[in-house]
């Protein structure tokens, strides 16, 4: 190891220790480093990883305007009264001009801004199709290592691709509002299976009763005996009504998963999905590089002139990328 490498290693170690001690500026700098693709981030995550896995990761998803941020704000206040440290990662749409989050920390949860045991960060989705910023999982690990007990991950909106939150969070809460038509879209898109809790927010509106009945009817059709039956909880984010019930529902889900020995299996599934996604991303980058080469265009000419087939070309590229015979059918 040369002097520069040793100096960087020592710096990473000190940085990781500062994060583990809860130093807010070090935590914020780490997340910024992750978002920027800094090469130091991999070493930092490696140093932090042994100290992760303790936080309760809660996904909060739902259509824009459903009141997710207000609910998370109320939950944060509720948890702080219990002495729990709270992290919030709010994944917002990315500005096409600046590349940053359209909604920033400063307009969210202002009453917690001076609380050293609450860390709030807005992250731009940066075109990520799953409603999650590409570095959200790593940012959650930084907060986990920093000792935050509960980490809320608030996603951009609802849709088929929003199912990604299921592959990251320990518990997923889907926020719906009466009269918005969200429920119909949820049922069509298959998101019913991703939610561990259904939150009917703005429950003072007309149509609340019908929405609750619709959700419960669909749940009874979709769920099998012995499976977790998601509760349907009424809330009013602005008044705080239902906040305690919301948290109780999350705790009950966590207890059920642990009691039925499903908790570790879910987390293992998340890790598998994460590794798969990393491998796919790396192969995709390698493939794009290969497809920019003159050799690829020459080979594509062979396919276009019918002297070769798409399968043959794909198999040849796979041999180059991963070795062996590749996985394409012959």
How would you summarize this macromolecular structure in one to three sentences?
With 330 residues, the protein is an alpha/beta fold. The protein has two domains: 52-260, Rossmann fold (3-Layer(aba) Sandwich), CATH 3.40.50.300; 272-322, no CATH class. The chain contains eleven helices and seven strands.
Q: Could you characterize what this model shows?
A:
This protein has 330 residues and is of the alpha/beta class. The chain has two domains: 209 residues, 3-Layer(aba) Sandwich (Rossmann fold); 51 residues, no CATH class. 47% of the residues lie in helices and 12% in strands. The protein has eleven helices and seven strands. The chain has a seven-stranded parallel beta sheet, sandwiched between helices. Helix 7 links the parallel strand 6 and strand 7. Helix 2 packs antiparallel against helix 5. The chain is globular. It starts with a helix and ends in an 8-residue tail after the last helix. The relative contact order is 0.10. The C terminus is likely disordered.
């Amino acid at each position: 190891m040369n002097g520069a490498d040793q100096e960087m290693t020592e710096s990473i170690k000190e940085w990781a220790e500062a994060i583990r001690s809860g130093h807010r500026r070090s935590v914020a700098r780490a997340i910024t480093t992750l978002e920027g693709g800094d090469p130091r981030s991999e070493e930092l995550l490696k140093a932090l990883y042994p100290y992760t896995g303790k936080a309760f990761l809660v996904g909060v998803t739902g259509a824009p305007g459903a009141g997710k941020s207000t609910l998370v704000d109320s939950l944060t206040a509720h948890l702080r009264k219990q002495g729990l440290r709270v992290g919030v990662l709010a994944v917002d749409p990315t500005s096409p001009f600046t590349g940053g989050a359209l909604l920033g920390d400063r307009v969210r949860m202002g009453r917690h801004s001076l609380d050293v045991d609450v860390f709030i960060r807005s992250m731009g989705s940066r075109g990520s199709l799953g409603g999650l910023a590409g570095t959200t999982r790593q940012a959650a690990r930084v907060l986990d290592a920093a000792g935050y007990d509960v980490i809320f991950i608030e996603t951009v909106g609802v849709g088929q691709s929003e199912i990604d939150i299921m592959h990251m969070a320990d518990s997923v809460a889907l926020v719906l509002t009466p009269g918005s038509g969200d429920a119909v879209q949820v049922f069509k898109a298959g998101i019913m299976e991703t939610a561990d809790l259904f939150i009917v927010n703005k429950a003072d509106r007309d149509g609340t009763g019908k929405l609750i009945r619709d959700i419960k009817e669909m749940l009874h059709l979709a769920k099998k005996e012995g499976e977790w039956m998601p509760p349907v909880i009424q809330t009013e984010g602005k008044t705080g009504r239902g906040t305690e019930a919301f948290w109780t529902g999350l705790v009950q889900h966590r207890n059920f998963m642990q009691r039925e020995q499903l908790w570790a299996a879910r987390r293992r599934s998340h890790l598998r999905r994460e590794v798969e996604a990393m491998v796919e991303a790396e192969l995709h980058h390698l493939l794009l590089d290969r497809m920019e080469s003159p050799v690829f265009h020459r080979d594509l000419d062979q396919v276009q002139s019918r002297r070769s087939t798409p399968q043959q070309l794909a198999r040849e590229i796979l041999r180059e990328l991963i070795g062996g015979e590749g996985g394409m059918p012959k």
